From TrEMBL:
Pfam families: MFS_1 (PF07690). Its main location: membrane. Keywords: Cell membrane, Membrane, Transmembrane, Transmembrane helix, Transport. PANTHER family: MULTIDRUG RESISTANCE PROTEIN MDTH, RESISTANCE PROTEIN MDTM, PUTATIVE-RELATED-RELATED. InterPro entries: MFS, MFS_trans_sf, MFS_Transporters. The chain crosses the membrane at residues 21-45, 51-72, 84-104, 110-138, 150-170, 176-195, 225-248, 254-276, 283-301, 313-339, 351-370, 376-394. It is a multi-pass membrane protein. This is MFS transporter. It is found in: Cell membrane. It comes from the Bacteria. Gene3D superfamilies: MFS general substrate transporter like domains.
Length: 405
């Protein structure tokens, strides 16, 4: 069984696409952190749209953006790599330009800008994973994917902190952040395109059918929809519970979010390396168990009285973040290991479809369950996640030997 026991920075940079590509990732993440968390505020404060109209436009952009994924998968399977990554960044730059050109009170141009941003945000993960899978192999690829996620979270965190510090400037500051985001996307697109990485389309001489069909992965894809809820727990579920149910200070959800970001940045890579000695599928099932345990911990924490609820929720959030780290370090790695080379793009596109769908529906599910009490919210999430972990562990695949390597 192949394992990674040490972290060698130079080798890691090469496995992640090279120095220019690493800089492109950092610049792209910094720009995203400046605007994406505050896009709703931009619609309300700068464009003077109603909050419901702004939210609907943003949600529609995310959902409709998923439609582009099959085309992205086919493009990747023709051998494109850095070009697709650069295109995903350029599409977002166009979205920011349209956002800046939108007159106050006009919702449709804002919706079009949200759509372009949604397309870029949906296409980027699959394109990035395909690029890394072309440069690195085996457990080195898993480590490179983990390093990319840590770098991206660091950039997002720094961008969000800078944006938060500038919010006192009101609408003018939000416009300035949008301009900075557009410049960052254009710079990142140029850097990614300059890498000029392609893969030879891995097609068997007798055709795709002879090379083998793409794995169905129905259990894995269905489980991923539930797993991905963990990404919205720090941003949606915990603020909702802490502020509206436990009546805690807004400082608590902010502290939980900052702690989540710091833990992901510092632990994503070493945890992925540590778990490389185990089969990827088992690690992904373990992530589901950790997440379910954390959800049950939140259920217990919310029942505490005397001011202990908020500190207990913050403590349990560490377990939830560990589950998120284990999930993020194994899910995409498992998919890239399962996918035959000639269908890598399409398989990654299907996986990102399930991720995007989970991210799109999770806010609605969380906010619908929360009014029915902690048992409905946390008990429901725990049960669904345990079922998903069981489905991941039980599913069989034709490339099982790849998952153990």
């Amino acid at each position: 069984m192949e394992t990674v026991t040490t972290i060698r920075p130079r080798a890691l940079v090469r496995a992640s696409g090279g120095p220019r590509y690493a800089v492109a990732l950092a610049v792209d993440a910094l720009g995203t952190g400046l605007l994406r968390p505050f896009l709703l505020l931009y619609g309300v404060m700068v464009l003077r749209l109603s909050a419901p109209a702004t939210g609907i436009a943003m949600t529609a952009g995310i959902v409709v953006g998923l439609v582009c994924m099959p085309a992205v998968g086919r493009w990747l399977d023709r051998g494109a790599r850095s070009t697709v990554v650069a295109a995903s960044m350029l599409v977002r730059a166009l979205g920011v330009a349209l956002l800046l050109a939108t007159p106050a009170g006009h919702v449709w141009p804002f919706a079009a800008a949200a759509l372009l941003l949604g397309i870029g945000n949906q296409a980027w993960p699959a394109a990035h994973a395909a690029l890394v899978a072309t440069v690195a192999h085996g457990r080195e690829r898993d480590t490179a994917l983990a390093a990319g996620r840590a770098l991206r979270n660091a950039g997002l965190g720094v961008g969000a902190l800078l944006a938060t510090a500038c919010l006192a400037g009101g609408a003018t500051a939000l416009r300035a952040m949008a301009v900075a985001t557009g410049i960052a996307y254009l710079t990142a697109a140029a850097l990614a395109w300059s890498v000029r990485l392609r893969a030879r389309p891995a097609v068997d001489p007798e055709g795709d059918a002879a090379a083998g069909p793409a794995p169905r992965m129905r259990g894995l894809l269905a489980a991923n929809v539930v797993y991905v809820f963990c990404l919205n727990v720090p941003e949606i579920a915990l603020p909702l519970v802490l502020v509206t149910q436990l009546h805690a200070s807004p400082v608590w959800p902010a502290a939980v979010f900052v702690a989540n970001t710091v833990l992901v940045v510092t632990l994503q890579l070493p945890v992925t390396v540590l778990l490389s000695r185990f089969p990827r599928r088992n690690v992904l099932a373990l992530a589901g168990v950790l997440l379910a345990v954390s959800y049950l911990g939140f259920l217990a924490a919310t029942s505490l009285r005397g001011g202990w609820g908020a500190p207990a929720v913050a403590a349990v959030s560490v377990v939830c973040t560990l589950g998120e780290i284990v999930y993020a370090g194994s899910a995409t790695a498992l998919v890239t290991a399962l996918a035959p080379a000639h269908t890598l793009g399409r398989v990654l596109a299907r996986f990102e479809l399930s991720t995007g769908f989970g991210l799109a529906v999770s806010p609605a599910v969380i906010t619908a369950l929360a009014p029915h009490g902690p048992t409905a919210l946390w008990g429901g999430l725990a049960g669904a996640t345990l079922l998903s972990a069981s489905a991941v562990a039980a599913e069989k695949d034709g490339n099982a030997h790849l998952c153990r390597r």
